[in-house]
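SAMPLE LOG
Freezer: B-3
Tube label: C17
Construct: single chain, 1275 aa
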Amino acid sequence: MSTSGSLEKEDWLDLGDLNNAANFTLDDALNDTESLNDPLLDEQFLFDGDFGSVSNLEDSASTSDNQPLVYKLDASFVIQPHQLISNQILKNEKKSGRVIAVAERNGWIAVVTSKGQLHLFDLNGNLNQFHRGDETMGGASCVTFSLDGKYLAIGLQKGAIKIMTIDNKLYHIINEGGQPGQGIVQVLYTKDNHTVLTIDNGGSFYECKINRQWLQKRKDSLRCHVSGCNGEIVAMKLLPGDVIALLSVHKLIFYVIKPRGGQILGVFPTKYEFQFPPACSYWLGCPKSDNNNSSSPLNSLYTSELRDFRICISRGHKISVLRLHANNFFSKKRRATVINQFDVPSPLVNLHWMSTHVVAGIDAMGAVWLIDPEKKTAKKQELEDLQLIFSTPILKGSATGGKVSEAVKAVAEYACYQSVTSATSTSERFIVLAHDGLKYLEKVHEWQQLESYKERNDDISAALYLLDVCRDKVRASEEFKRESRNLLAEKTSKLLTETVSGIVGGPLSDLQSHYRKYIRVILKVCVTGGLLEFLYTTCWDRLSMDSISKTVFLEHLDEYVLDGALIDPPTPLVNEYLQHLASEGHFSQFQSAVVRFPIHTLDLHTVMSICKQNSIYDGIIYVNNKALNDYITPLEDMLAEMSEFAHRGVFSDSEQILGNKVLVYLNCCLAGMAYPFGQLDGDNQKRVPLETFRCISSIRGKEEKESEEQYPYLKLLLQFDPQQFLNVVSTCADVELFQLDNRLQRFVDTIGQVCVNMKCELSLIHYLALLVQLSERALIALPTEPIQDAVITLLKMSPWDQIGTEDAILGGLYHATPDDKRRIIRAAQNPMRPVILSFLYLSDRKFEELIKCYLDSENKEVYSVIGGILKGGELTVQESAELRSYIMSIMETLYRIDGWLCANLINDHFREVIVTMAENEEEKRKQIFPVLAGIAQLRKYANQPSFCNDNELDEKLFGIVFEGICKRWPSWMPTSENPESVDHQLISMFPFWLPLAANTDFCLNIAVGNEYCVRTVVRLLEARHHLERAFDLLFEQLEKNKENDERMGELNFISSKVKSYPSTAEWLDETMKFCSRQSTKDDNSDRMMRVFQFISERAAQVGEDSEKQEKIDESLRVMCRQILATGTRYAKQLVDQLLDSPSFSGSSFIDNGGLIMDILSSCDYEAEIYQEMIYLIREENLTFAQKLELEVSRRAPLMYNSQCITCEQPMNKSGYVFRCGHFQHIECSTSIERICTCDGIADRLVVPREKPDKPNKRDIFKNWESKLNCRVLPK
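STRUCTURE (predicted):
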């Protein structure tokens, strides 16, 4: 059985079948930690913002015009030291010991000390009783009263418990209230007043029943509920309903003690922040009284109505709020629900639930926090820090040798359970025992807060505070709420008096600041607090007497007018306010304010005059609508003004605003709504939409006789903004006006007629979109003829200026089938509209006619159309066969239009055509060449080195491609005036197509016929293994260009830029590339040497051009290293050629040292290889000589000396005789190989390795900067 069942937020306390609860003990609950792997409180919870004005409690009340009105509340709590009690306990601290714990009941305050003494005070601070402790029992650790207040239980640090009466008589002593050798850390009375619950510092939980004094024959009944290795209980709290909250290191257990044991109601995990002790407090709402009122903690323990039973649990930074369902304690239903979980900024060590919405918390530093469990907020109070007395020595067992539970020791540092106790009479006060005395911490009441403002003469903050109370933005008692409105009226009247009295003396700016400070608050309080009558009469009458205060009042009235907060204001006030706005030039505010005042409060003549002079149409509309019940005249006037600029494409800001206002007003009138907000009355809801519709759809407009233009208003609206006007029509299409007499259908047809006559592309686009929208909403039947006329009109326009024209046409044709498609097709063919034609023909599945249209105009999109039909046309077998047959018949035309696109089409869908392209006539080959070139390129991209998997046919087809490029036949391939471009195009096709091109002599012969395709010829010769011919051709190009001295300086071994005429450097580059490709051939060194000699000869002809000489030297070095890489066959010739070069012979070692070292090292390497080979031959031959000598004689040779070669002692011990003639004792031998240590030969049959004599060398490069002075020896 799981301890906590499911640890979800809704059913974490369900324990399953209660019939089996007897088998589930408290020890089992403490041992069960598997269900705690999902800590509910480890999630990150956000803090809600503060509520109302209290969210801005910064500094004092602010009255700046740019900031909201805020005020500062005092701390929610007040700390009151009890001076008399504090003085007595501090004064006698040396004698009685330091105070340890405190308890309170029925007006008595009990304090115990570290020397075991008891001090009993009354509420006035008089010491009523004093009990001296017994040092043998240790100091006191805790104290508690019985619930009836007649007895006290004192827990001692050595394990005993004293029971005292209220009149200081020793009632009973329990020698061992817990485990033997463990101190008591907490004692708690149950409701029967003769049962004591104890917790020792071993973490054990005991129940002790005290026998009566006259029944001392039997011992006290002591029963252990938790002990031993499960000792994790650090504190307990008595809750209503006989429930005990047991606080352990890992969890909170709700436990009920029964005669034969106990029962667990539920478990809540607190497995985090172990250094801080867990704490809990409860709140029990009283249904018969106000929930905001305080309740008696003592009375709540006896009550049977547990309707609003909540528990607040804290552990470090985490807080959880639970609601216990007392009616389900002994049933299978849910017993608790998690209400809220959140974090606080500082770790708490104790807390106390003071009222429904207020929990007081104390953190580890003694700071007091106001916690709202519903809003999940925590605010630090500006109070002095409490110097809490922690029970650290007691919990760590200083009096019992430190034998305490590790669980208790973990929380001992910040445990203060015994120094904080609740008051008996009220929950809004609790007692704290601090190092500097005993203190009360009480909640501040609303009357105290108001009195505090009064003492500071802060009427503004008092008024704002009362305003928030009236608006339920600040929590207060019902009694205070009932009085708050009268108090607010009194404060407002006082503020008005202070405002009018002004300031004495000083500049005018100070008087203005004074008025702004108070008038702003008065307006806020009166408007928001429901004191409008006081504002309209008393305030306005008194403030309007002074011009400055009047101006300030009108300036601050703006925000309330715009919010519509002024209900039925007086006419003088309204007129003064509007004239003030007009005189200041605030016409935008004037326009917004007029429509928010009741019409009977306005001076119509004044308002209309100002509105007409400044074109304030909102005011004109409002007066005409409300006063004259005229909705059409303002519309006609605005349309008349729009007619002056609507034909222009660009509008000014004022013109744009007017046009948008007309559209909004038109939308409101057609929809039966008031402008700019609200609803029309019953009579106007039908009349106004109909009159508006007749107005804008009239044939002649307002001046019927003077104008011959039809539908001028519709045309005007379509000219200004067709999209927004048609959106208005779409928005109002479902109103009752358009649902009668088929009015919407006729109206839409009229708009279409106007759009077609206007020939405006934008209007026609949005008209088609409107038709589609209305048809999809089933509001109209799609008119075929208007759509057809609109489409034809758009098709005849060229070019189109709008992006969505084509989509609009397709949308209209998709939703409505035109009666005469031929007209549309003819219009789409001139100018050509490929997408429109495709839609028309494909819808009728006329594929051949569609392709013919593209072919007639030779449009290159024909290929994509054919591909699209074949891929996604969903053709039947017959349609596919007919279409392919038709395409095969027009294939020659497709060849001609675009070769590259045709190649893509054939490669994707008509690969069988490739076989028929091997033509013999030159004209046909020219026609096919662009297509074949494209196919070759596509096959190269796809890595398919074949046209049709037939070698002979592939050779012919590629021959056409090769011939076309060489002869520069016209195609899609890029061309250039440079004749070398042909060679580069052919080279770009290699090496992919090189095997196919080299199979026959056809491509080679074609390339030879073009004098500019030398590179191609070389590659073909090389592929056909004619290496000498290829090299001779390259060397021939070097010889031809050797006269171009101006190009010789442009040496570039990897040329990326094709020049008009190839230079010697480029051909040298090609030659060297050729030699590199053939580096594995034996005769490649000869070719490279020829190139090296050519470079050397050219270097001698350069002269004194330093730049050219430097490039030639670099080429010589590179070529020299490439030759040396093939061997030292030409090393001597290389040196001779280098010595002939003036730049080499006259250079310093720092310039050419690397090259010289390469030559020398190459030669040394070959010499060493030669010597190694000779030595290996000699060793192989000597092996056979050794065997021959051993066969001749196997006797050991005579010793040269009978003394040991190491110790020089005679041969009197065992030893080795070596072939060299030496003797050595076995004990003197240090060589594992058993080799003589002499300088001779270990085995005379082995010939030593002879190293070649090294010639004497001298450092000829000692001075790097000196010239080499190399001379050529006579040959």
